[in-house]
Amino acid sequence: MAAKRRSEMMEETRAKLIKSARKAFAEKGYAAASMDELTAEAGLTRGALYHNFGDKRGLLQAVVNQIDAEMAARAYAVGTQAQNDWAGLLAEGVAYIEMALEPEVQRIVLLDGPAFLGDPSQWPSQNNCLQTTLRKVEQLIAEGIVKPMDAEAAARLLNGAALNAALWVAASDHPQDVLAKAVEAFRFLAGGLLATPDR
């Protein structure tokens, strides 16, 4: 019973730090966010941050993982509303790209994330997205909708295209203009995988 309570307290502490950091990183950016301010906001100490995340960078990774998981869930929800599996796969990619217009996603995941955590394709959260895309591509190949090819290669290229399009939108001085171009190009590139064009 005591072990369970301790585990719950640790989860509460982690959740408080992530919530506080998410707010601070969104408002000020990772570099300008003070560890003292964000721990005080959470009603905790720097020691709690170090114990749970190792350092500020570890906390950023946790925040990015949380937001990225939310993005994936939102994109999936959009995909489930599509008329068929192929349209759903495209809709998920487009939804992910469109989220690059959201200030929190833009600043934390697409600008500060790569700057301080390195290549996004290596993040654990991106690997989860890749596995979801891979399963969908395998299904579409089995149904004859997508050309017979290496499913992992196709999934990696689709995910990479959506991620890089989102990074481009986030870094642009004219994100709305870039979004339209990025979505159009993503659709054309993905369409090349179809066994029968114009599906």
TrEMBL record:
One of its GO terms (molecular function) is DNA-binding transcription factor activity. Residues 11-71 form the HTH tetR-type domain. Gene3D superfamilies: Tetracycline Repressor, domain 2 (1.10.357.10). Pfam families: TetR_C_41, TetR_N. InterPro entries: Homeodomain-like_sf, HTH-type_TetR-like_transc_reg, HTH_TetR, Rv0078-like_C. The keyword Transit peptide does not apply. SUPFAM superfamilies: Homeodomain-like (SSF46689). Residues 34-53 bind DNA. Keywords: DNA-binding. The keyword Mitochondrion does not apply. This is TetR family transcriptional regulator. It comes from Skermanella aerolata.
